[in-house]
C-alpha cells in the first residue's frame, strides 16, 4: 500500500551526486509500496524543447548538436552511477531510444509530446536501476500506463484502477512525472510543473497519506528568498492561501498540484532535497493554521476581459496554455490574468468573447489574512508611490491585492515592500528553558521588554521548561502569573515531546532561550536549529563542546539564516563578546586577554580575609545566585576554563577545553562525590585556601583566580588558575564579584582596553540575556 508519494524535481537529479543524495533520501524516508515521481534530470526538458524547435525549423546542425548533448549527459549519469550489467542495459536502451529519435527526425515523423517524455523516462529508469544496484527493491513505471485523459479530462475511475493494477506493493515504484496518455494511446504532457501534479494525482488515486515534494528550496517563503534575503519560511500554509499563491506567481506552488487534494485528507509537504534536516512547509487544510502574509511578483502579463465566462472554462483554458490562470470580477467585468506569451491562444479559445484590457504589465500580489487586506493595500500603494511607481491597475479582493504596474518590481523594491508589509505581521515564539535564579528574573523583566518590541513584532512566551516538567501554550502564556500556571498546568515531558511541540508551532520565528546549566539540554541545539529555532544561551556547554560538534552547529545555524547569541556565557551582562566582535569587524587583531572571568571566584577571593571560613563564603555566594548550580564547577576552574574557550573561539581559534591548562581552587579530592560529601569535607577546602592565602601574603600579594589568553605569531597560551597578585595590581583591587577583561590588540597595544563590572548575579545576567534578545529581534526584523 502506498503511504507516501515523493516527488523529485529536475534540480534534485541534475548530477550523479544528486542522484546519490536522492537515493539516500529514499532509503531513509520511503517504505515498500511508496511511489517516487521524478522529473527529467537537470535541464533535460529544456534541451528536448530546443530539439523540438530546431527540428521544426529544420536546423539539422543544431539538431545534431542537441542529440549529442543529450547522449553525453545521459551517458555521463549512467556511467557514473551504474556498474556492470545494469550499466550495459541502461546504455543499450539509451542508445536505441536516441537512434529511434534520429530515425524519426530523418523521416519527418517526430512528435512533440513523446519526444519530451524521454526526459522523465530516462530519469525514472536510471533511478530505479541505481536503487536496485543499492539492493533496494525498486521498479520504474511509465505514467502513460497509469494516467489517461479524454479530451483533456482525466479519466479518474479508470486511472485509479490502473494505479491499483500497476503499482507494486513490495517495491519502491519510480514513476515518470509530467506524462500521461490519451484514449488513443498517444503521449500527452501535463504541462510545466506537471510532475508535481502527477504526484498529487497519484496520491489521490492510491489513497496515499501524504505527498512530499522534494525541491531545491527549503519550502514556501513569504516572498522569493532569492530576491529578498529576509524572506521568512513558513512551516505551515493553508490550502486556500496556497491556491491563491499558485495562481498569483509563487514559483514553488502550482494550482494544478493542489487540485487533486481538494476534498482529501492527504498532507502535502514541500521539503529541501539539499537540506534534509530542514523543517518542511506543510500545506494544510483550512482552519488548521493561521493565515500568513506573502508577496509574489508578476512579470509580463496581460489583463483580459471576458464575456459570459462559463463554469470550467478557466480550467480548460489553463489546461490549454498549461498555466494556472487567475480570474476575478471588478465593476461588472470578469478579468483574466494571462501570461503575455499565451494571450493569443487564450483570445482564440474564447472565440471573440475575450478582449485585451491592459497589456505588458508587471507588478505584485499581496496575499494576507482578510482583515489585514485594506490596510496593506494603502501601505503597498504608498510604498510604491514613494518609489515613483504608480500602479496601472489595482484589484482588492478577499485575501489578496493585485497591484499591476508598468515597471518590474525588482528585488530592491520587493525588499522594501517586504519590510513594510510582511514584517509587521510576524510573530516570534519564545521558549525558555531553566527557571532557576537567572531564569526567574529574566521572565519577570519580560513584559516590559515585549512592550518595547511591539512596533516590530508580536512576541509571545509559549514554553517554559524545567528539567522534568514543561508548560506549553502555543497562544501565549500569561507572564503576570506564569508561576501559578506552571505549578498547576506543567506536565512531564521528554526530548521527543518537546521537539514535536516546537515543530508544530505556527510562528514565523522561534527562539529557544537556554538558561539552564545542563549539558544534556545543550545537546538538543542541533535539533532546535533543524526546527528553525534561533538560540540564546547563558548555558556554556554548547559553546565549549568539542570542535567538530561546535563547528557543525555553527554551519547549520548559518545555512538556515538563524542566529545564536550567548553574550552572558562570558562576563554575565558585560558586553565582552560585542566588544571583541566589533574590534575584529573593524580590522583590529586581538593579541591578549587577561583577567578575572568568574564572578563567583572574584567575589570569594576578594571577600576572603581569613575571618570567615572560605567554605561559608562559598555557601553565601551560592545563596546570592552567583555560583553554578554545583559551585564546584566554579571552584574547579572548569567554568572559567569554559569562558576562556568561548573567548578564544570568538577570536577564531580552534581550541578545545583540554587545550586550556587549569589549576583548581580546591583540592582535587573534593571533586569526587556529592555536594553533601563536599560540605562534609569543608575543612579540606579551608586548609587549602588558608595555605594559598598565607603563601600569597608572604609575597606581598593576594590570592586571585585569573585567566590568560595570549596569541603570538607561533604560539597560543591559554590558561586559568590560581595566582598571587601583587597588592597594587588592578586585579587585586576588584570590587567583590567584578570581572575584569584586559584586552590588548593591534590598536590597544601599549594601553589596554579594559572592560570591568559585575561578572555574575541574577539581575545583570538576566539583563544580558535581554540584550541578546533585543539584538536578535533587531536582526530578524
Ligand atoms: N548566575 C549567574 O550569575 C550567571 C549564570 N549564567 C549561566 O546561566 C545558567 C543558569 O544559571 P542559574 O540560573 O544561576 O542556575 P540555576 O541552577 O538557578 O537554574 C538552572 C535551572 O535550569 C533547570 N534545568 C536543569 N536542567 C534542565 C533541563 N535539562 N531542561 C530544562 N531545565 C533544566 C533547573 O531545574 C534550574 O531551574 C547557567 O548555565 C549559568 O552558567 C551565566 C552568567 C551568569
Ligand atoms: N559561576 C559563574 C556564573 C556565571 O557564569 C561565575 O560566577 O562567573
How is this structure best described in words?
This protein has 781 residues and is α/β, with parallel strands linked by helices. It folds into four domains: 4-42 and 120-216, Carbamate kinase, CATH 3.40.1160.10; 294-423, VC0802-like (2-Layer Sandwich), CATH 3.30.2130; 426-569 and 769-780, NAD(P)-binding Rossmann-like Domain (Rossmann fold, 3-Layer(aba) Sandwich); 576-759, Dihydrodipicolinate Reductase, domain 2 (2-Layer Sandwich). It contains 28 helices and 33 strands. An eight-stranded mixed sheet has the order 3-6-2-1-9-13-14-12, with helices on both faces. Strands 24-23-22-21-25-26-27 form a seven-stranded mixed sheet, with helices on both faces. A hairpin with a 4-residue loop joins strand 7 and strand 8 (187-189). Helix 2 packs antiparallel against helix 5, helix 3 runs antiparallel to helix 4 (84-106) and helix 14 crosses helix 28. It starts with a strand and ends with a helix. The mean pLDDT is 94. Bound molecules: 1,4-dihydronicotinamide adenine dinucleotide and ligand LTNE7NMQ. The ligand N[C@@H](CC=O)C(=O)O is lined by residues 572, 598-600, 626-628, 634, 639, 759-760. Residues 433-439, 465-467, 515-518, 520-521, 538-540, 568, 572, 599, 625-626, 628-629, 760-761, 765 line the site of 1,4-dihydronicotinamide adenine dinucleotide. Its cofactor is a metal cation. It catalyses: L-homoserine + NAD(+) = L-aspartate 4-semialdehyde + NADH + H(+); L-homoserine + NADP(+) = L-aspartate 4-semialdehyde + NADPH + H(+); L-aspartate + ATP = 4-phospho-L-aspartate + ADP. In the N-terminal section; belongs to the aspartokinase family. In the C-terminal section; belongs to the homoserine dehydrogenase family.
Amino acid at each position: 500500500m502506498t503511504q507516501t508519494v515523493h516527488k523529485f524535481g529536475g534540480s534534485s537529479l541534475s548530477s550523479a551526486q544528486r542522484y546519490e543524495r536522492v537515493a539516500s533520501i529514499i532509503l531513509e524516508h520511503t517504505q515498500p509500496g511508496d511511489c517516487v515521481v521524478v522529473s527529467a534530470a537537470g535541464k533535460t526538458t529544456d534541451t528536448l524543447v530546443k530539439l523540438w524547435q530546431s527540428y521544426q525549423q529544420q536546423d539539422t546542425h543544431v539538431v545534431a548538436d542537441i542529440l549529442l548533448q543529450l547522449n553525453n549527459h545521459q551517458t555521463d549519469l549512467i556511467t557514473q552511477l551504474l556498474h556492470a550489467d545494469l550499466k550495459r542495459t541502461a546504455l543499450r536502451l539509451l542508445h536505441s531510444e536516441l537512434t529511434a529519435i534520429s530515425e524519426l527526425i530523418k523521416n519527418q515523423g517526430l512528435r512533440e509530446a513523446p519526444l519530451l517524455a524521454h526526459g522523465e523516462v530516462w530519469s525514472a529508469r536510471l533511478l530505479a536501476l541505481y536503487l536496485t544496484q543499492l539492493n533496494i527493491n525498486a521498479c520504474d513505471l511509465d505514467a502513460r500506463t497509469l494516467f489517461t485523459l479524454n479530451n483533456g479530462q482525466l479519466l479518474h475511475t479508470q486511472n485509479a484502477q490502473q494505479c491499483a493494477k500497476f503499482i507494486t506493493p513490495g517495491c519502491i515504484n519510480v514513476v515518470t512525472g509530467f506524462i500521461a496518455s490519451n484514449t488513443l494511446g498517444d503521449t500527452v504532457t501535463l504541462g510545466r510543473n506537471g510532475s508535481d501534479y502527477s504526484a498529487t494525482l497519484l496520491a489521490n488515486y492510491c489513497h496515499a497519506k501524504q505527498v512530499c515534494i522534494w525541491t531545491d528550496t527549503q519550502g514556501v517563503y513569504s516572498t522569493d528568498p532569492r530576491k529578498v534575503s529576509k524572506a521568512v519560511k513558513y512551516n505551515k500554509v493553508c490550502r486556500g492561501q496556497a491556491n491563491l499563491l499558485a495562481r498569483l506567481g509563487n514559483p514553488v506552488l502550482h494550482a494544478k498540484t493542489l487540485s487533486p487534494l481538494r476534498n482529501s485528507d492527504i498532507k502535502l509537504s514541500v521539503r529541501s532535497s539539499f537540506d534534509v534536516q530542514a523543517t518542511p512547509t506543510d500545506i494544510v487544510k483550512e482552519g488548521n493554521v493561521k493565515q500568513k502574509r506573502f508577496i509574489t511578483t508578476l512579470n509580463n502579463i496581460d489583463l483580459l476581459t471576458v464575456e459570459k465566462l462559463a463554469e470550467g472554462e478557466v480550467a480548460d483554458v489553463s489546461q490549454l496554455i498549461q498555466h494556472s490562470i487567475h480570474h476575478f470580477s471588478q465593476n461588472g467585468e470578469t478579468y483574466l490574468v494571462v501570461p503575455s506569451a499565451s494571450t493569443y491562444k487564450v483570445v482564440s479559445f474564447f472565440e471573440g468573447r475575450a478582449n485585451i484590457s491592459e497589456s505588458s504589465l508587471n507588478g505584485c500580489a499581496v496575499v494576507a489574512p482578510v482583515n489585514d487586506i485594506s490596510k496593506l493595500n494603502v501601505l503597498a500603494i504608498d510604498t510604491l508611490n514613494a518609489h515613483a511607481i504608480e500602479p496601472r491597475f489595482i484589484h482588492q479582493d478577499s485575501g489578496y491585492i493585485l497591484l499591476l504596474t508598468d515597471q518590474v518590481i525588482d528585488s530592491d523594491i520587493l525588499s522594501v515592500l517586504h519590510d513594510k508589509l510582511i514584517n509587521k505581521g510576524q510573530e516570534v515564539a519564545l521558549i525558555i528553558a531553566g527557571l532557576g535564579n537567572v531564569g526567574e528574573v529574566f521572565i519577570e523583566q519580560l513584559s516590559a521588554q515585549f512592550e518595547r518590541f511591539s512596533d516590530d513584532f508580536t512576541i509571545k512566551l509559549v514554553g517554559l521548561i524545567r528539567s522534568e516538567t514543561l508548560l506549553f501554550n502555543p497562544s501565549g502564556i500569561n507572564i503576570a502569573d506564569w508561576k501559578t500556571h506552571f505549578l498547576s498546568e506543567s506536565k512531564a515531558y521528554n526530548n521527543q515531546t518537546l521537539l514535536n511541540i516546537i515543530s508544530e508551532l505556527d510562528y514565523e520565528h522561534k527562539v529557544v532561550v537556554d538558561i539552564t546549566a545542563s549539558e544534556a539540554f545543550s545537546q538538543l541545539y542541533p535539533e532546535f536549529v533543524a526546527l528553525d529555532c534561533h538560540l540564546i544561551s547563558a548555558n556554556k556547554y554548547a559553546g565549549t563542546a568539542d570542535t567538530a560538534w561546535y563547528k557543525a552547529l555553527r554551519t547549520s545555524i548559518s545555512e538556515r539564516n538563524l542566529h545564536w547569541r550567548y553574550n552572558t556565557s562570558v562576563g554575565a551582562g558585560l558586553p565582552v563578546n560585542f566588544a571583541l566582535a566589533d574590534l575584529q569587524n573593524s580590522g583590529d587583531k586581538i593579541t591578549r586577554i587577561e583577567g578575572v572571568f568568574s564572578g563567583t571566584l572574584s567575589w570569594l577571593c576578594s571577600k576572603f580575609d581569613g575571618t570567615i571560613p572560605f567554605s561559608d563564603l562559598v555557601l553565601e555566594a551560592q545563596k546570592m545566585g552567583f555560583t553554578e548550580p554545583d559551585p564546584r564547577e566554579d571552584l574547579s576552574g572548569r567554568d572559567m576554563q569554559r569562558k576562556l574557550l568561548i573567548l578564544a573561539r570568538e577570536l577564531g581559534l580552534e581550541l578545545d577545553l583540554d587545550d586550556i591548562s587549569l589549576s583548581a581552587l580546591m583540592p582535587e579530592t573534593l571533586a569526587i562525590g556529592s555536594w553533601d560529601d563536599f560540605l562534609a569535607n569543608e575543612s579540606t577546602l579551608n586548609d587549602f585556601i588558608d595555605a594559598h592565602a598565607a603563601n600569597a601574603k608572604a609575597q606581598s600579594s593576594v590570592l586571585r583566580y585569573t585567566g590568560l589568553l595570549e596569541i603570538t605569531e607561533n604560539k597560543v597560551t591559554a590558561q586559568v588558575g590560581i595566582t598571587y597578585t601583587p597588592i597594587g595590581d588592578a586585579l587585586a583591587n576588584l570590587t567583590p564579584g567584578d570581572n575584569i577583561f584586559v584586552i590588548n590588540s593591534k590598536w590597544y597595544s601599549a594601553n589596554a582596553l579594559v572592560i570591568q563590572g559585575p561578572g555574575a548575579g541574577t539581575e545583570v545576567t538576566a539583563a544580558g540575556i535581554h540584550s541578546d534578545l533585543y539584538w536578535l529581534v533587531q536582526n530578524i526584523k
